[in-house]
Amino acid sequence: MDEAERCHKLAILEAGIKRADGSPDQLMKQMGAHVVEVASSNLRQLKQELLTLPDVITAAQLGSRLRVLIKNSHADPVAFLKLQQNIGPADILTVVRPSLEDVFVTCTGEGRQ
User: Which has the closest alpha carbon to 9: 30, 33, 29, 26?
Assistant: First the structure.
C-alpha cells in the first residue's frame, strides 16, 4: 500500500466490483471514518471491547498501539473513545492520517458480497 500512495489515481476492486477510485488523497478524505491510535497497557482487552461497538469499523493492534477506525458520524472520535470503559486516564489517544489500508478496510469486506 505504501507504493500505491505514490500513484496519481487508483481503484479498489473486490470480487471484480470497483468499490472506490480516485487519487490517494481523495480516497482517504472520502472514506467516512476517523482514525485514532491508542497507546494503552491493555490493548488486547481494549480491542475486544471496541470491536463490539457499532460505530467502530475495526481495531487492529500495530506494535504497541491500537489503530481504531470510527465512523465519522462522531465529530470528536477521541471524546467518543474516552467514554469507553477500558480507556484509562493514562491512555494516549491521537487522531492520525488515514492510510490506503484504512480505505481498503472501509470499502471492502463483510456484507458486501
Answer: 26
